[in-house]
Design goal:
two-stranded antiparallel sheet, five-stranded antiparallel sheet, disordered N terminus, mainly beta
Amino acid sequence: MPWKECNVLEERAEVTTCGRICYNRRKINLSLVFAGQTVGIKQVEGHIWLTSFMDYDLGYFDDETCRLEPLQNPFGPKVLPMSPV
C-alpha cells in the first residue's frame, strides 16, 4: 500500500520484517502486521513520539525506554459527539 502524504508527520520509518521501528539506533517493537510498511512518527513532547499508519494513530513511544504504548483501538469507528439542539 503506498504511503499517504501528510504534512503533519515529522519523520517516516519502515517497519522491519520482525515488526520493529529503528529510531536513533534503538529498536521499538510495533507489530509483525506492519512489516515492510512505512509509518509516520511525530514528536509530541520531550521524548514522546506519536506513531501513525495512514490515517490511524497507533500509539506513543518514549525514545528513552523504547516502549510503545498502543492506543485503545486505533482502527475502531470514529464517532463524532452529538451536538445539543
